[in-house]
Write a structure and sequence with these properties.
The protein contains twelve helices and six strands. By secondary structure, the protein is an alpha+beta fold.
Length: 370
């Protein structure tokens, strides 16, 4: 593609990134428990990546074991046979389960109304199936030509597919008894899942799966135009992200100065009050004014746009406009007051998010107990 056209498209993408960054930066702070679809997408994308890397690593280790590892000691021979038999798969599966479980809680995906363990299990299964198909395609005709490396790939595919089947079959030690089984049935009968919510919850997983499958497919092709298209998309996306990053960073430096810069600005603002009646400045996230009138002097704290539905009074008390009368503009006293407001606001937001999360947990518990 012509370099000039690529440059123009990158500049347009960077400008769009700057605009998006400005909108996102000035978006009002909203205290609520909300899980972004992007979090679900990142979880699904990371899950696909980890499974692919683990499967590729296990395959590589087994390939090396078959082709280059020729042990003489009995215990090393046993280890070699165990690796070929799939012991690494047996070790990897519970570790992956623990990892993905912690990720779900880390992203709070288990607190979505549409959360279903079956969505994760289906995604986990089809990711392994997609990788198995990819491995078979990469192995090619060698599978039927008795090629040792290709036969090893086929063996790994069979082992992973059997483990997927075991996941759905619930293979394990089951001796709960009839009462326990009946309690499970009663609980299951009371479950009320909104199909629409489950489908919405599944959308980021579907997008991540399609994206990763497309990336795997591209690796099996040798098409020049596709490589050029990927390069074009890559540079356009990178240009937009760079533009967005720098716009947010510049606005943050200007509108939310560091504590050190804020202290210098405060000292300068106080010194300017000798020949001015009003000075507007910022102390980190706080916008304030030093005002000197004939009758009084005061520190004016400007309102900050924060939304917390149902708690408007509390938000007004913390983030609304307020005046602090002073006898004189003393640096230490003004700084102490501004730092206290900053900490109070931070604590209010922190407790607000915790409160919203606890409300969601309580609501989900009540729904499951009904």
């Amino acid at each position: 593609m012509n370099f000039g056209i690529l440059l123009i498209m990158c500049i347009i993408s960077a400008c769009m990134g700057v605009a998006i960054g400005a909108v996102l930066f000035h978006k009002p702070t909203k205290i609520e428990f909300k899980i972004s679809p992007f979090d679900s997408f990142m979880y699904a994308f990371g899950m696909f990546f980890i499974i692919t890397m683990v499967m590729a690593l296990e395959l590589s280790i087994n390939q090396w074991n078959l082709l280059y590892f020729n042990p003489a000691d009995w215990w090393l021979k046993f280890l070699s046979r165990a690796i070929d038999g799939g012991v690494l798969v047996a070790i990897a599966l519970p570790l992956l389960s623990i990892l993905f479980g912690k990720w779900i809680m880390r992203f709070n995906l288990d607190l979505c109304n549409g959360y279903s363990i079956n969505v994760v299990k289906i995604y986990y299964s089809i990711v392994i199936v997609a990788n198995c198909i990819w491995f078979l395609v990469m192995a090619g005709p060698g599978i039927v030509n008795d090629n040792p490396e290709a036969q090893s790939i086929l063996n790994r595919v069979i082992i992973w597919m059997l483990n997927v089947g075991g996941t759905w079959a619930g293979i394990g030690f089951h001796c709960e008894g009839r009462i326990s089984e009946e309690l499970k049935n009663i609980k299951k009968s009371k479950e009320q899942k909104n199909i629409k919510e489950v489908l919405v919850y599944s959308i980021p997983f579907a997008i991540a799966f399609a994206t990763n499958c497309f990336l795997l497919l591209v690796q099996t092709l040798d098409v020049k135009w596709m490589q050029e298209m990927f390069s074009l998309i890559y540079w356009i996306v990178i240009s937009g992200l760079v533009g967005m990053f720098f716009s947010v960073w510049i606005m943050k430096c200007i509108e939310y100065p560091s504590e050190r810069r804020s202290n210098r600005k405060l000292a300068k603002a106080i010194s300017q009050m000798n020949n001015k009646n009003i000075v507007n400045e910022r102390y980190q996230t706080i916008q304030y004014s030093l005002i000197s009138e004939e009758s009084q002097k005061y520190l004016l704290i400007h309102e900050r746009n924060v939304i917390w539905l149902g708690h408007e009074g509390k938000i007004s008390s913390y983030f609304g406009e307020r005046k602090e009368p002073v006898e004189k503009f003393d640096y230490e006293e003004c700084k102490k007051y501004l730092v206290k407001i900053r900490e109070d606001r931070r604590e209010c937001v922190r407790k607000g998010y915790i409160s919203c999360e606890e409300d969601v947990k309580k609501q989900l518990l009540e729904q499951n107990q009904e």
